[in-house]
Write a structure and sequence with these properties.
Length: about 270
């Protein structure tokens, strides 16, 4: 079997306007290659498809070099969640797909009961004040960004991911990431707060399995730092804008900084 096609870490040369995925090789007796025939076939293909090779200037999300993964693959491979196309459908990452769908269904269905005594000036990430968008709005917005999003990756996914599948992936993954940032911001503000003083939303958050299991939250934070496990920032920003309408919202950058703060370097006092 051709290792070039089966190995997920073998990059494809990206092209624009061409569907060719393999070099032109002409079988000819024992040598297996005929230069004249190759030139003729290449000339024909150029006339038919006129491919333009991507210089890679738009790439912002790359595969980690294989030699680095061979040294310590655990530093680069996600453990429980895939975000973006590189590890989509990966073995051992299926469980979090249910949580992604749960987050999205909760948003679209506005499944949250507001207590009458809840503070009316609650945080911008509270579900109570959110005007639930239509799923069609999210899909249409991501369709408009599809080609720009694909262009950010150093690997060509055209042959393995249809337009509908790719768009659905960035809707599901992108919204999960944005919502996780919002929920963690609220969760972080409840630290040290007595449980009896929690609002209805805070009680709901405390019971969420992602925040209830500390190991899961920390693993998610580490997975979202992995170099291959990401979506372009403009995707997150657009989804954040669409899903936070009707609210006074925190800046997305502030939510991101808060989410990854546990992994920030800390000053240590010298040993006395």
């Amino acid at each position: 079997m051709d290792n070039q096609e089966t190995n997920p870490r073998t990059p494809h040369l990206r092209t624009v306007g061409s569907t060719r995925r393999r070099p032109l090789m002409i079988e000819d007796g024992e040598s297996g290659f005929n230069l004249e025939s190759w030139l003729v076939n290449l000339d024909k293909e150029l006339q038919q498809t006129k491919p333009t090779y991507d210089s890679g200037r738009s790439w912002t999300i790359h595969r980690v070099p294989r030699n680095l993964c061979q040294v310590r693959d655990s530093a680069f491979l996600p453990k429980i969640i895939s975000i973006g196309p590189f590890h989509y459908g990966g073995k051992g990452l299926e469980l979090m797909e249910e949580h992604k769908e749960r987050f999205l269904m909760r948003l679209l269905g506005s499944k949250f009961d507001r207590s009458e005594d809840d503070d009316q000036s609650s945080s911008s990430c509270d579900h109570e004040r959110r005007k639930a968008p239509q799923l069609r709005d999210l899909v249409d917005a991501m369709k408009k960004l599809e080609q720009r999003t694909r262009g950010c990756y150093s690997v060509d996914f055209d042959a393995t991911s249809s337009s509908d599948k790719f768009v659905w992936m960035i809707v599901l993954d992108g919204y999960f990431a944005v919502e996780l940032l919002c929920l963690y911001y609220k969760y972080d503000k409840t630290k040290g707060k007595p449980n009896e003083s929690f609002s209805a939303h805070e009680k709901h958050l405390a019971d969420d399995p992602i925040f209830n299991a500390r190991w899961m939250l920390r693993t998610l934070q580490r997975d979202l730092l992995k170099l291959e496990n990401r979506l372009p920032y403009f995707v997150l920003k657009e989804l954040f804008k669409l899903t936070s309408r009707g609210q006074e919202k925190k800046a997305l950058e502030e939510l991101i900084v808060t989410f990854f703060d546990p992994f920030s370097p800390r000053e240590t006092s010298p040993l006395s």
